[in-house]
Amino acid sequence: MLKLLQRQLKYGLPTNKLICIYELGFCDRCLVQELEQFVDEEIDIDLIKFDLLKSKDSVLEVLSKYPSYFETVFERLSY
What we know:
The structure is a single chain. By secondary structure, the protein is mainly alpha-helical. The chain has helices at residues 2-11, 16-23, 29-35, 45-54, 56-63, 69-76. Helix 2 crosses helix 3 (29-35). The radius of gyration is 12 Å and the shape is globular. The termini are far apart.
């Protein structure tokens, strides 16, 4: 519980799911909150990757509003 609180304070994000998305390389709080809609309630990094990759077209549409760096981060998730 203390570790989660520390991570919440560090990243400025309220849930473990958002923190996991952030730690995948999407280091923008607004972007992470937009990507949350594509992820089920899992807190496992591998399942979060799977959910994001499953919604590839929608995720890329969201990412198009952000710097291209985040598209590169997304492409690296499949490796």
